[in-house]
User: Which sequence fits this backbone?
């Protein structure tokens, strides 16, 4: 049994209390500042109706660890301010009373984000939400010890998610840097000089300077791959489908199993080939209709439907 379940049985044996937000919180509107007063640089950010900061001031009117809800613009947007800030007049601050842990309330409200958007006035320009509508929201109020445990768990996941986002950014940076050979195209006169300036890892730069001292060769896909289209055998002929063993790929395979595929959801029989050859393993499929550009590497001899174009290597190339 999870710790929260045990705590609920002990501390809330009759169930969790639900109350309106206005009964357990203060909702305070910010104070207006003009564009002339706002600084490009300052000690404290100005939180307004948008998702980011409006600018900066050298004074603040709210403490750190405050929940904010945008009144206009991105009306209903819930955010957590981890530093002292200035709440502008189109920003609500949500201040919980003793029965609520601030961070717990933040997670409850972000979990209700779509509902907050739905109760805002989407016909107004800009969009707006009233404090009265916010105060009418009903939220669960478990005992404080349970709130603390929920915060502990969700904070850990938030930290992990932040780390994953940072790693993804780092990966994208290196992916772009390592695969961008445009300025060392061997057709460019200054390719050799550009290569010397590139911030490649030492081993990669040494390999490039040794194996491609004049720059990297560029070719069209047509020069490197055989390009053919997929097709769909007739659905009216059961001999093409019943007890099929040959992988036949569709977009659903990519959606469900990712971009490296070793088997398909549906299969066809040898009779469905009608003398045509299978596309060899290590072919790439690229969608040319609907979700254009979606792609996958196939590590099995196979076929795909007419949505896809196959790229099969003419000679040895490295496919990752």
Assistant:
């Amino acid at each position: 049994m999870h710790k929260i379940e045990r705590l609920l049985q002990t501390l809330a044996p009759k169930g969790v209390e639900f109350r309106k937000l206005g009964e357990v919180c203060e909702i305070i509107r910010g104070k207006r500042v003009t564009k002339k007063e706002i600084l490009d640089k300052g000690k404290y950010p100005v939180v307004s109706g948008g998702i980011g900061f409006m600018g900066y001031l050298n004074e603040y009117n709210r403490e750190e660890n405050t929940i904010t809800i945008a009144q206009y613009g991105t009306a209903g947007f819930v955010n957590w301010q981890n530093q002292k800030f200035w709440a502008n007049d189109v920003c609500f601050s949500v201040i919980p009373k003793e029965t609520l842990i601030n961070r717990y309330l933040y997670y409850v409200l972000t979990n209700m984000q779509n509902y907050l958007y739905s109760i805002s006035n989407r016909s107004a320009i800009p969009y707006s939400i009233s404090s009265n509508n916010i105060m009418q929201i009903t939220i669960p109020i478990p005992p404080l010890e349970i709130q603390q445990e929920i915060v502990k768990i969700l904070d850990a996941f938030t930290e992990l998610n932040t780390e994953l986002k940072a790693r993804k950014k780092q990966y994208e940076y290196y992916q772009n840097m390592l695969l961008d050979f445009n300025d060392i195209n061997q057709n460019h006169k200054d390719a050799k000089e550009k290569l010397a300036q590139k911030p490649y890892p030492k081993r990669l730069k040494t390999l490039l300077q040794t194996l491609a001292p004049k720059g990297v060769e560029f070719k069209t896909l047509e020069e490197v791959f055989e390009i053919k289209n997929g097709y769909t055998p007739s659905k009216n002929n059961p001999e093409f489908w019943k007890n099929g063993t040959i992988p036949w790929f569709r977009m659903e395979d990519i959606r469900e199993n990712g971009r490296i595929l070793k088997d398909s959801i549906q299969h066809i029989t040898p009779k469905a080939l009608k003398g045509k050859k299978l596309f060899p393993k290590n072919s790439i499929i690229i969608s040319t209709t609907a979700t254009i550009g979606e792609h996958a590497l196939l590590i099995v001899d196979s076929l795909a439907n007419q949505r896809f174009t196959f790229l099969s290597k003419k000679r040895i190339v490295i496919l990752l």
Remarks:
- The chain has three domains: 1-9+144-182+193-218, 17-141, 219-313.
- The chain has a mean pLDDT of 90.
- Residues 144-179 form the longest helix (36 residues).
